[in-house]
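Notes, Module 5: Reading structure tokens.

Key idea: the token line is not a picture. It is a compressed description, and you learn to read it the same way you learned to read a sequence, by spotting repeated patterns. We will look at two proteins. The first is printed below with its tokens.
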Amino acid sequence: MTEVTMEKIISLCKRRGFIFQGSEIYGGLAGIYDFGPRGVELLNNLKREWWKANVYDQENAYGLDTGMFKHPRTWEASGHIGGFSDPLAECRNCNTRIRVDKALAEIGVNADEKMFEEDINTLFDQNRDKIKCPTCGKKDFSPVRKFNLLVKSNLGDFTGENIEPVYLPGEACQGIYLDYKNIVDSMNPKIPFSVVQIGKAFRNEISPRNFLFRTRELEQADTQTFVRPHENKEMYEAIKQNRWNWYLSLGIREKNLRWKQHERLVFYAADAWDIEYNFPALGFDEMEGVHDRTDYDLTQHQKFSGVDLRYIDQETGEKYIPWILETSVGMGRMFMAFMSDAYREDNLGGEMRVYLALHPALAPVKAAVFPLLKNKPELVEKAREVYLMLKKTTPQIMWDDNGNIGKRYRRQDEIGTPVCITIDFDTLGENPDLKDTVTVRDRDTGEQKRVTISELPMMLG
């Protein structure tokens, strides 16, 4: 099998309208990407399937969409102002900044961003002779310092003094904690219950890189499951299994997934695991985190807000701060994983082709309708009739009459369209036995079969 490279994925994403560099006409903006016409459809399909699995298919799960801006004390309570930072060192020769924990990891030294500044400086000093500046190749770096990733805003500040800065969200899930009491009061949920959100987050990354893997603007899909204190183990394992199975159900190959347990837990966590995906050029790295956060988050917000956030058990009258089991995945990383996993190159009919073997539920175009020849009005008229009929029930239907039929197939293969429907002269009754039938071609195998027009809506169903 041909190797799947990051360069091939990026090229396909640009060529077929999946992903564009942000502000490209001005030279681009580091760590910012735009989802093109095909990309936004795939992204929306991923969100829809994720939402279905985590809200509609669950009991006692509630969706939420919180405002992007939060009261500044939110980020004090969550620890982001004091502890949301990455270790940075600067090349003294060319001023390129590197993220030290990642640079150490590349030479096999285990470090992470949660280490104290003194400890990571010690590790860095021990290994300076092995780390080169990625820009100029020198080995002359400044000491390591912690760089806070929160992005400041001047929302509501008309003085220009920035005395009480407001921040763009460093993570999306904080809105769930802020609305926890409102959900309890309005929905009267029974423990255990979940609150689910897809929201924006912003991080002033030192060195955004690797396409969608590390960006400065991202979307996070989060679930927070509230459970009774110390009744976390069984639910935690069930959540882990559900998330793993979800990826498999939508076509991710199991050989490209693995679990990794965190070696260093933050002080409040009971357990933390990542689902890692085998990304092109990166190897296995974090895609989704599943965390047992105990009662830390609500306890912090109760302390900083002065509002009682205890849950009252309606049957026993018991009051307690629930523990939280969290899942969190960056939609960009998820998108990148599904694109990478679906990318294929093969030889079909004596020609090399590229195609995306996307699950039909995720494909940005569900089917493409062709007239065999675009210069035959009777074929075009019938094909338009079929196209418009299907579009009523399946909006993601594409019309394509540009070029010969082989080129049309190749274009649809590259965007992952599961089936192509061709209207030919037999459809019109040239062969009476085949009147009102069409040719349906399968993306993955290239095999073709004839079906009646009336069967198409159910087939795409």
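Here is the second protein, with the sequence above and the tokens below, as before.
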Amino acid sequence: MGVPGPAPAMSRDEVDRALGRLGAEHEAIETSLLALQDHAGRRLLEGAELTGVTKDRWATAEQRITVLWAHFEAYSAALEAARELRARRRWLSPEDLATLTDMLRGNGVTVSGAAVGSLTELSEQLSLEALVDRMNGLYARALDVIVSADSVWTALPARIDLLAAELRRTRSLAHSVGVRPGEHPSGDDLEQITEELTRLRAEVLTDPLAFWVPATDASAAPGGGRPDTERYDRAARALEDVRREIEAVLAVRQDAERRLMLVRDLLSRADRTLTEAREARGEVLAKIAASEVPAVSGPSAALHEQLATAAEYRRRAQWHLLSPLLESLEERAEDELLRARESLTAVTAPLAVRAELRGRLDAYKAKTARHGLAEDPLLIERYDIARRMLWSAPCDLRAAEHAVLRYQQAAAEALAAGQPDREGES
């Protein structure tokens, strides 16, 4: 197979068009390089004391920028040489066209090893088109570092400063209600948030690229991605939780006396109900026989002691201690009142049963009277037996209930017969 010969020479019009296109590319690259030189992110990177990922990537980016300028100078020199050759004469000879074709399309641009960024290659031969592609790649990678770092520095420090200002206001408010480190969990949380924000801000300023999440799309433009705000967001949520806790403590300070009075009222009502239950128990034991009456406990000494402690916290303005104690007291005082009411209900249940039996007995008596059975001897006898049991003390509820049922049965039979039942039954 033969070696292919040189490419055919370009025409004059093709040369002029190529020079125009390459000139436009030269102008665009120069504009981009100057913009890169003046980019605010680059100036920040050059002036910052960098660490970590950013230090390493910026060192590489600086090398690329140096190589990029060297490439641009080689590109400019080659383009200027081609322009000078074209400008020598209006009508180009075949030799001129061949030379220009080689300059514009051939690998005629020599780039030194230093410009290439290689320690092993002394030089490299490139075409102008390949050199443009090389410069575009170097520019995109350098710009990606600069734009990414600048995006982090634009977004995070300002947000951290705003959160730090909110943190200072919250700490001042917390101090005013006695929430301090070592004395209250929220005070410890504020210290931890303060330390985290201090560390976070220092790390963002020295290593911004450690807080950058690049775009997953390979075709994304330089600087595609977003700042990583996970640590900031976590600190912000923690501060919000503390702020709500402080507001709860403030609410306690503003409403403490009213809430303490409500707790006192609940406990007082519970105590009165327990007293009533104890008195009722004595009455039940005296009036009801053969009945299991539950014991009634006394007032909760622990709750009364905690109430006294809460009042002392309020007197000393120890709101951070009063807040959780008061919440617990409110819940437990309601439970205490419920317990007292249940105790009273359980104790008085036998009296309620007796009252229900009395009402049932009298209701059936009234019914029989309306049907002309008031003088029925059997009904009178059974009514008197049931009534003596229900109105005597102590009352045997089981026997009384049985007597009421016997009276109801006799009344039902008499009513069903439509006449007084004279058949004797003792």
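Summary for the second protein:
- The longest helix spans residues 230-287.
- The chain has four domains: 12-149, 155-215+225-252, 253-348, 351-417.
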